[in-house]
Write a structure and sequence with these properties.
Structural class: alpha+beta
Number of strands: 17
InterPro entries: Aminotrans_IV, Aminotrans_IV_CS, Aminotransferase-like, BCAT-like_C, BCAT-like_N, Class-IV_PLP-Dep_Aminotrnsfr
CATH superfamily of the largest domain: D-amino Acid Aminotransferase, subunit A, domain 2
Radius of gyration: 22 Å
CATH architecture of the largest domain: Alpha-Beta Barrel
Order of helices and strands: HHEEHEEHEEHHEEEHEEEEHEHEEEH
Number of helices: 10
CATH class of the largest domain: Alpha Beta
Organism: Nocardioides flavus (ex Wang et al. 2016)
Pfam family, one: Aminotran_4
Protein name: 4-amino-4-deoxychorismate lyase
Family: Belongs to the class-IV pyridoxal-phosphate-dependent aminotransferase family.
Bound molecules: pyridoxal-5'-phosphate
Length: 357
């Protein structure tokens, strides 16, 4: 079915069934880690210096927090089940300050990032995500990250226990590094952070809310995955206040664009469609694969028209996979509709085949 528009008809359904049995990941709750530091880390006794004023990334010896439960508890009552790696070294406690207060990523959002799903500790589509990280860095005028370094960081945060997590999320962040306090850049060096945390499977269906703000498809950062996500924070809060889990943006032309952290697909006149990249949406990795695997027509149409006339719709993203939209503002939709179900099944089957599509 590659490259052909998916239609809500029997022919497509039969084709999908021919893909064979769908492998579904077991729905189970994630195992939470309550260790103050990972055993491997405390065994070596070497962690990154994670305090303000320290030279970033310089190794620093600390005492073993396991030596006395009481002492460990006083130092850090409960560390979030997260691991983080900064410029080459695992951090003892990712919740403590570690990046310079002058980092341009922190002061003005001058950075790019990736969110990558892991399944039992193995990243999904990491090569595609790293290619997008490079493209985003280039688009922002940042130097290219050394992808061997990034992979090293990924291995470091996954090494200790991630294999026991059904799914998890890697967050790779690459910023301009220390700089003056204004918009002008300093000389770097750039900051590279890889963080990991287990997550839960997203629900199979959800509600979305159209927000009054628009995506600027002509903006300098359109289509780049930058760390300047404050617009998304406001939009998502707006949607959540109205009972949604995702906000949907139109662009300045009034056409459907994307969600705060997802791309949108819909069925109109029996055809699966999604906005073009020219609409200003992020070139989502999940979107790219759904277009390839399920065949969707890329077309730009007014959001109001899509919301009124679509017979079904769904969100796609790294953490949602294919997620049916059951309610879009005041409109109820079948969730999952037949095409959405076919795409979800195809997604599960293809993801089970390879972790590097
Ligand atoms: C703005 C935006 N659009 C779309 C997506 C979906 O992209 P992906 O499928 O690569 O997760 C994301 C991911 O976080 C996003 O931030």
């Amino acid at each position: 079915m590659t490259g052909r528009p998916l239609r809500a008809d029997n022919e497509t359904r039969t084709r999908d069934l021919n893909l064979g049995k769908v492998a579904l990941y077991q729905l189970s709750y994630v195992r939470l880690h309550f260790l103050a530091v990972s055993p491997a880390l405390s065994a070596s006794g070497t962690v990154a210096h994670a305090r303000l004023g320290a030279k970033i990334g310089s190794p620093h010896r600390v005492s073993d927090p396991r030596r006395s439960p009481g002492q460990a508890a006083r130092r850090s009552p409960r560390v979030a089940p997260m691991r983080a790696w900064l410029n080459g070294t695992l951090l003892a406690d990712p919740t403590e300050g570690a990046v310079a207060v002058t980092d341009h990523g922190f002061t003005v959002g001058d950075g790019v990032f990736e969110a990558v799903k892991t399944v039992a500790g193995t990243p999904f589509a990491l090569t595609r995500h790293l290619a997008r990280l490079e493209r985003s860095a280039k688009g922002l005028g940042l130097p290219a990250p050394d992808l061997d370094d990034v992979r090293h960081g990924v291995s470091a945060v996954l090494a200790d226990g991630a294999a026991g997590d059904p799914i998890g999320r890697l967050r790779i962040t690459w910023t301009a590094g220390p700089a003056p306090m204004g918009s002008g850049r300093g000389g770097g060096p750039a900051t590279l952070v890889v963080a990991y945390s287990p997550i839960e499977h997203a629900p199979r269906e959800t509600s979305v809310v159209t927000v009054p703000w628009t995506r600027n498809e002509n903006g300098a950062t359109a289509g780049l995955k930058t760390t300047s996500y404050a617009e998304n924070v406001i939009a998502l809060a707006h949607a959540q206040e109205r009972g949604g889990t995702e906000a949907v943006f139109a662009n300045t032309a009034g056409n459907l664009c994307e969600g705060t952290g997802s791309n949108v697909f819909y069925v109109l006149d029996g055809e699966l469609r999604t906005p073009t990249l020219a609409a200003g949406c992020l070139a989502g990795i999940t979107r790219e694969l759904v277009v390839e695997w399920c065949g969707a027509r890329e077309v730009d149409e007014p959001l109001a028209e899509v919301r009124k006339r679509a017979s079904e719709a769904f969100l796609v993203s790294t953490t949602r996979d294919v997620q049916a939209i059951a309610r879009w503002d005041d409109r109820e939709l079948p969730a999952p509709g037949p095409v959405t179900q076919q795409c979800a099944d195809t997604w599960a089957a293809r993801e089970a085949e390879t972790m590097e599509p």
